[in-house]
């Protein structure tokens, strides 16, 4: 699972575009978006760089959130 912060995701429409960008990389991914906090959780086997590139291409640059136990 990957967790991202997507500062440009501010509404439901943005969340749909973020979800669609991720699904373009992995159509089987499970995507959970939370526009008020700009958080995106993705359950996928896709490469993190491919997800970040797809989000940037869609106009939503993303940053990986630090996850507990990964520091």
UniProtKB/TrEMBL annotation:
It comes from Paracoccus angustae. SUPFAM superfamilies: HMA, heavy metal-associated domain. Pfam families: HMA. InterPro entries: HMA_dom, HMA_dom_sf. Gene3D superfamilies: 3.30.70.100. This is Heavy-metal-associated domain-containing protein. Residues 1-63 form the HMA domain. Signal peptide: none annotated.
């Amino acid at each position: 699972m990957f967790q991202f912060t997507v500062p440009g995701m501010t509404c439901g429409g943005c969340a749909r575009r973020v979800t669609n960008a991720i699904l373009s990389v992995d159509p089987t991914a499970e995507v959970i978006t939370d526009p008020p906090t700009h958080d995106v959780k993705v359950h996928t086997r896709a490469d993190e760089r491919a997800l970040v590139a797809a989000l940037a291409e869609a106009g939503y640059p993303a940053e990986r959130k630090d996850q507990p136990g990964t520091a």
